[in-house]
Amino acid sequence: MGRTDYFHDPDAPPATSVVPAVVAFVRDDGGRILLVQRSDNGRWALPGGGHDLGESISETVVREVWEETGIQVEVVDLSGIYTDPGHVMRYDDGEVRQQFSLCFRARPTGGELRTSGETTQVRWVDPAALSELDIHPTMRLRITHAADRTRMSPYIG
Questions:
Q1: Residue 126 phi/psi, 5° resolution?
Q2: CB 65 within 8 A of CB 24
Q3: How far is CA 130 from CA 48, 87, 138, in A?
Q4: Rounded mean pLDDT for each run of 10 residues along the chain, 157 residues in total
Q5: 157, 104 contact by CB (below 8 A)
Q6: Which residues touch 109 (CB under 8 Å, ≥6 apart)?
Q7: From the centroid of its chain, how far is CA 137?
Q8: Does pTM top 0.85 for this prediction?
Q9: How many alpha carbons fall within 13 Å on the CB side of residue 53?
Q10: Domains defined for the chain, CATH in brackets
């Protein structure tokens, strides 16, 4: 299913839903960041997705990273909460979702890189190479915030 992002666009369609979602900022021992190329919009992003009924939010982080990348993670802390009503996403099925995203720092604990139905590429990216990738401005903000270790938030699972 395709997706179009609208970021403070006066022509954006009105939101029809709000779905809690997570993204995970995962760094390997070499300092590289785990990124996926999304199959719905072709952009590079932190792995993540929607929260499912019956899950804790940390379980959502672990599940989404595993599903999209093949990497197992452990949640470390929360780096940011993003609820900008000026950022909406229109999906091909007609849903228009208002952004509501929690960004967590996580550490890899195992697994092997692989793609999924939601990702066309998965890779560990050197932070110096981020400028070469097509990353939405709101995702760049999450990466910047998560990389800043002074921005610590207490995390309650």
A1: -65, 135
A2: yes
A3: 18, 22, 14
A4: 86 93 97 96 95 95 98 95 90 91 96 96 98 95 90 55
A5: no
A6: 72, 73, 74
A7: 12
A8: yes
A9: 0
A10: 3-147 (3.90.79.10)
